[in-house]
């Protein structure tokens, strides 16, 4: 075993990234699908327990549901590592693989880009509807490209860089904590009448866990793209977004790519005018493909930086057993 903990993490990270690139998302029996069912059962149970209570009661119900949904699996990840002195190798690498969604993200994005490039707007609208929550039925070609590009940039943080950072910080248990918290935010974090108060804890915890990854993701996009424009867009445009994490990620990403994103969109039948993101040309097929390439290069950059830090700490005598 390498003497540096960072080198160990680098090897596990490489294994997880390679598995994601080769195998992609598990087609059957994906753990997150099972987790979604578990979370649904927990939500129903906690709602029955706190049925009819006020705002404070529903927030407490949501916090309890979050703890019951997430923490047992974090504990299980920690326990599995103790079964054998070398169990951490397989456990951590497998958990990172299941948490990553890099190949799936690229496949969904390119499934939009292909019909859009061929002029099949109806097919492109249908496919982008798989990855965004806005109404896509009336989008023009630029609207489809804009939605897909925004999805790649934002989910690059959630499905790739956030998972990698929490893996570095906490190994398999850390990546489980981050990915399940992010999944619950997607399930409960919307400001609908049903989840406005119940999902408060899920949304706030996801914001907290995602704060640092989002800013490192934004820096990664800036580093690998038009750095000056990315940083300027981040500084000027991110504060206008409601989400403290999506704003920096998408503003920096749009600036790095030199495209205009944001603007009007329809969600659940209601039109919303969202702040501008980026500057430059309008979104098109090339913007979708460039966003995919940006996320892929960013993942390799993170792997390389982790390896360099691991080697440096080992040579400096700072590695751990």
TrEMBL record:
GO terms for biological process: cobalamin biosynthetic process. GO terms for cellular component: plasma membrane. The keyword Cell membrane applies. It is found in: Cell membrane. GO terms for molecular function: ABC-type vitamin B12 transporter activity; threonine-phosphate decarboxylase activity. The chain crosses the membrane at residues 60-80, 159-181, 299-318. The keyword Cell membrane applies. Its main location: membrane. Pathway: Cofactor biosynthesis; adenosylcobalamin biosynthesis. Keywords: Cell membrane, Cobalamin biosynthesis, Membrane, Transmembrane, Transmembrane helix. It holds the Pfam family CobD_Cbib. This is Cobalamin biosynthesis protein CobD. It comes from Thauera aminoaromatica. The gene is cobD.
